[in-house]
Every structure is written in structure tokens, then in C-alpha cells.
Specification:
Layout lengths: L6 H11 L4 E3 L8 H10 L8 E5 L4 H9 L4 E4 L4 H54 L3
Helix pairs in contact: 1-2
Length: 137
Amino acid sequence: MAGAQDASQGLHTAAELQPALILLDVQMPGIDGFEACRRLKDDFATSDIPVLFLSGLNTLEDRFAGLEAGAEDFLAKPFDAVELNARVQGIVGQLAERKRLAANAQSALCTAFTAMSSAGELGVVIEFMRSGFRCTD
């Protein structure tokens, strides 16, 4: 578990450590959390890391701004630890499901390429056999 004093340090730490989840406040020194989240999502190295905002801001506009910036969820302070744990578990579960689906897609792609390659090889064998049956002498 790593922490950062400001958004710039947090962006650097996230790229370096590749955490499973980032808890982010909106009100920080330097750039705000919304901009930090956008930068995380725009950077290939950190774009897949889920972000959960924990903020004292609680208006509907603030929550929408967090989601529009790319966060998976937004929880207003003060928050209940049980609710935070449930939301974290939900995000981690979604991340695991995304990874499972990506692995399935990769497996399906490999299977398709193997089938196409085999079909091509089989086509060569069938054509050879066909030409062999046409042979008259």
C-alpha cells in the first residue's frame, strides 16, 4: 500500500507500482483528483487500474464528474468502512472478471488461428489427393 502527497507524486507512483486499485480524493494540492484520474486513464501504463474516489464533495455534479473522468466509483466522506469494503470488493471482482474474459478471448483467438492454419494445411492435402486421383498413368 503506497500513498502520495499530491497528484503528481501519485501518478508517478501508480505507473511504477501498478496497484490493483487507486483510492483518490478530489481536493488535492496541485491538480485536482478529476484531472489526475483523466491522466491515469489516458496513460497506457495505468489506464486499466480501477479508481475509486473518496471525497468530501458530495453533490450529484461532483459524482458525475468523477465517473466522467474515468473512475469506477465515487464514495462521499464520511463513509462507512463496511460500504467502502463492499465497493472495493465489487471493483476487484469486476477487474478479475475482465481479466478472465480477456484470457478467454485470447484463447478463442489462438484456437481460431490454429483452426485456420489446419484448414489451410488440410486443403493442400485434399488438393494433392484430388490431383492424384486424376492421374491417368
